[in-house]
Amino acid sequence: MPAGKALKQLTGKISPSGKLPITYDRTLADNPSYPYYYKNGDPKSRECDHVDYGEGIFTGYRGYDRAGKAPLYPFGYGLSYTTFKFSDLAIEKLPADSVAVSFTVSNTGRRAGAEVAQVYVGDPECSVPRPQKELKGFEKVALKPGESRRVTVVLPPDAFSFWSLDEHRFLVEPGEFKISVGNSSANLPLSGSVNL
Description:
Elements: H1 3-11, H2 60-67, E1 84-93, E2 99-107, E3 113-122, E4 134-143, E5 148-155, E6 162-164, E7 169-171, E8 176-182, E9 190-195
Antiparallel strand pairs: 1-2, 2-5, 3-4, 3-8, 6-7, 8-9
């Protein structure tokens, strides 16, 4: 980041809008990968000649959701000098099995800023273990104080699919999918569903 922009963020002349691409643990033992770091899951051994990624797809926020543990800072978290509100969720099935997720983002603070709206998909009735939710779309929205904007994120069919080990291809199982919208994996004030 250029020094001038960093100084403006530090002094509050412009609002930061970056988001965390990872989850920060409260403790090392909370991390979904913790049992696989050390030999026999014992950190005192300090031996790590082989790492078995036994958590599978349940890494990061997916693993925290599965374990019911709250991280210190969730995936997608970020700071701002203003505040934002999400409202008016609408979910529409489109041709070719795509889904349009529309919502309004409002700057409710007194400064201009940008928010990264995040769209998550969950498949609660899948025949294989799946995360509670997975990030499938996002959009960054710059807003002046008091300004609102309607945002539409189109999810393609593969946003609802998973890799089948039995059939060796991606599958979308018919049924209801949960759609959640917010500004981090732990702050999703809007939710709805769609049947595919």
